[in-house]
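Problem statement: downstream parser choked on a complex file, so we are re-checking the raw output for the D-malate run. The parser issue turned out to be on our end (a line-ending mismatch), but while we're here, posting the original submission so the record is complete.
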Amino acid sequence: MAKVNDNYLKLPGSYLFSTIGKKVAAYSQAHPERKIIRLGIGDVTQPLAPAIITALHKAVDEMADAATFKGYAPDLGYEFLRSAIAENDYKGRGCDIRADEIFISDGAKCDSANIQEIFSTDNKIAVCDPVYPVYVDSNVMAGRTGTWDAAAGTWSDVIYMPCTQENDFAPELPDETPDLIYLCFPNNPTGSTITKDQLQIWVDYANQVGAVIIYDAAYEAYISEEDVPHSIYECEGARTCAIELRSFSKNAGFTGVRLGFTVVPKELKAGDTYLHPLWARRHGTKYNGAPYIVQRAGEAVYSPEGKAQLKKQVAYYMKNANAIYDGLSDMGYTVSGGVNAPYIWLKTPEGMTSWEFFDYLLEKANVVGTPGAGFGPSGEGYFRLTAFGNYENTMEALERIRMM
Ligand code: MLT
């Protein structure tokens, strides 16, 4: 008789953004006349940059001609894209990362969920709290997290590293030694960052205790301050303790196009075993590569025109971030994030829980945000707004919040 993976049955509720989607759909159905402004999920709204569109068109034309047609992509990614990434994202920042250490994928969400597969189920994970739910849920599915405590909103075998106003939303080294450490900076959901010196402490710690850091740098394009690292490989010793995840979704508007990559340095080991061949094996067996046309679009991100156009796109979203930050501060909210990240993290007013504030905002302002509790227990009492809306809607949302 077929049996299911019991670990799936342990997962409480549905995926955070599916829950929000369902709630908003129900509200919308009940009030079809109301215009809802969505500042919940971090989904981009601006069209793809012209350099990317040109590259896509050209690649589509190549697919229409037998002489230039492409079938399966190389499973680890096309050389032209891996080289462009190594040159621009790493060499350009003084990081020693080579093209053959870069694995192209269809996005960082899948990679961040899949990467745990190459580690033993005995490994103990440490996560920031609040945290992007994919890191925890994918480990639940793998049976690595123990039992769920519904009252506390925690798993018995996960090390939670609280990130609150008191520690400036930056995790402290845990008391218990983890095997895998998930870090995301600029952070989703709090929008906080850490300096290169702070990140160096994590790298030194991981090397000392033999842990692997899974570093999610999906939002690096939003960094505006000098001392904030764009890559963990800016830190000395990171090649022997860190995997880095990157996405084209937020820096180039690819949420609907799908492209990302993972870096696994060749020196990186867990115990005595090198991880690069394991991830290559996993990729080769389970994945047929991101589409050629999409990888050509990714290459255009690094062209001079692409870079200039995307700088403007990032600035567009950061104008929203500044407006939300300033607007809410003026209204008396306690606000953080939004300086090196497209997320604004605010304290819910008058002791409301984050889901109460979600309902209140939806009802009174018809604005959707993301309740902090959805990201973990330390997110309770906080709320996330994204800067990825269009400017006019963002301004209207702020006005409606002011009038509540
Ligand atoms: C978010 O809103 O947290 C992100 O958009 C989710 C994602 O990138 O998968």
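For whoever reads this later: DSSP finds 13 helices and 17 strands in the chain.
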